[in-house]
Specification:
about 425 residues; ATG22/LtaA_families; MFS_trans_sf; transmembrane helix; MFS transporter; transmembrane transporter activity
Length: about 425
């Protein structure tokens, strides 16, 4: 296997570097802390504000779950994949920038624009993932996918450090702005970083596999979508993998998106949370690469099992967490596996699908993930409100991982493309 990376591979990988700023600053770190602070100032309890955040994430994922399969099917037509990617990318960047201009006391409006930015961010990922088949070969997909996640973790530390520095300096009154304004500046930094480093993706990555355009594309897209459902049922390995993915990726996504809110409920200071999340990014980068390399040696399925087991340990450990040290330990456990499990899931699926229908199948792949992501935050939010303890909400996610690993055990180790559903056209 060649060691160097082509221009197309590097430009595709660089989008992980670009969008990772959103993942850490908006999804995981600064925005949740800022939102929790604003909601608390408005008299909303910690448990309720965490639940509302979970509900917002659930609504955003539901919207995407409804749109992705149809848009993905249409995007398989020649020349449309990049256009759909651009639409969601622009939506996400603009909504993220606008977060900086919403008055802090309007926490409900803050959640609305957060939801819009999440739709844009996650929607762009659908088409970005589908471009994996266009930029590399099947035997390199595990490594390229893992390298993307790894570079994303490394790249995210730069805007994150800048944002943390501005926030801490404002807290210590070294610079004449409030911590709230400092947080809003971090939202602008995220939008600029995301937009700037997406330029290579636009220049060098192109749709190589496609279906020729035909009359009545929307009607025909619905027909092809129906055929996709039949194809997925026909191919047992693909169907079982998607079913397993439905459960375990839900738990992964919920823990990533709700971790900071959980830490805040534990009484951990915002500064400590930011430092922990920074350390998590640093540790996650080499582990994502290791997952890619180990998958070449031991197989992607075995490494997926390792990642799921680590997350089961995380859910159980959450019940006994009491101190900041406990949160450090939990964060480092998550760091060892969060990138690897996502990267290998993406490449494992990409190797199983017909390349000229990559958007259609990745639309279905993502609808599975999005429908699952509705369940996880709702499960956490409802359990937390019923019990009065956020830790029990995190523990409830263990159910998803156990079901996921049990189904994955029935999936045979995948080698090559097992879903040859048509002739690929390459340009």
């Amino acid at each position: 296997m060649k060691k160097f990376y082509s221009k197309e591979e590097n430009s595709w990988i660089l989008y992980d570097w670009a969008n990772s700023a959103y993942s850490i600053i908006i999804t995981s770190a600064v925005f949740p802390i800022f939102y929790k602070s604003m909601a608390s100032s408005a008299g909303v309890s910690d448990v309720d504000s965490t639940a509302y955040l979970g509900y917002t994430i659930a609504i955003a994922t539901f919207i995407l779950a409804m749109l992705n399969p149809i848009l993905g099917t249409i995007a398989d037509y020649r020349g449309l994949k990049k256009k759909f990617f651009t639409f969601f990318f622009v939506m996400g960047v603009i909504a993220t920038a606008l977060l900086a201009f919403i008055p802090g006391e309007q926490w409900q409006l803050l959640l609305i624009f957060y939801m819009i930015s999440t739709v844009g961010f996650t929607g762009s990922i659908v088409f970005y993932d589908a471009f994996l088949v266009d930029v590399t070969t099947e035997e390199r997909m595990n490594r390229i996918s893992a390298r993307g996640y790894s570079l994303g973790y490394i790249g995210s530390t730069i805007p994150f450090i800048i944002s943390i520095a501005i926030i801490i300096l404002s807290q210590k009154e070294i610079i004449p702005i409030s911590p709230g304004v400092a947080s809003k500046i971090s939202f602008l930094i995220t939008a600029v970083w995301w937009g700037l480093f997406t330029i290579p993706m636009f220049k060098d990555v192109h749709q190589r596999y496609y279906i020729e355009r035909e009359p009545n594309p929307i009607a025909n897209s619905f027909k092809r979508l129906g055929q996709t459902f039949k194809d997925i049922r026909k191919y047992r390995t693909l169907f079982l993998f998607l079913l397993a993915y439905f459960f375990y990726i839900d738990g992964v996504g919920t823990i990533i998106s709700m971790a900071t809110a959980y830490g805040t409920d534990m009484g951990i200071s915002s500064t400590t949370l930011l430092i922990i999340l920074f350390a998590t990014q640093v540790v996650a980068a080499p582990f994502a690469i290791l997952y890619g390399k180990f998958s070449d040696k031991f197989g992607a399925k075995k490494m997926l099992n390792v990642g799921i087991i680590v997350y089961i340990i995380v859910c159980i450990y959450a019940v006994f967490m009491k101190t900041a040290l406990d949160f450090w330990i939990l964060a480092m456990l998550v760091a060892t596996s969060q990138g690897g499990i996502q990267a290998l899931s993406r490449s494992y699926f990409a190797r199983m699908i017909p390349k000229e229908k990559s958007n259609e199948f990745f639309g279905f792949y993502n609808i599975i993930g999005k429908f699952a992501s509705i369940m996880g935050p709702l499960l956490l939010g409802v359990t937390a409100q019923i019990t009065g303890h956020t830790s029990y909400g995190v523990f409830s996610l263990v159910i998803l991982f156990i079901i996921g690993i049990a189904i994955l055990a029935r999936v045979p180790e995948q080698h090559g493309n097992e879903a040859d559903l048509g002739n690929s056209k390459i340009v």
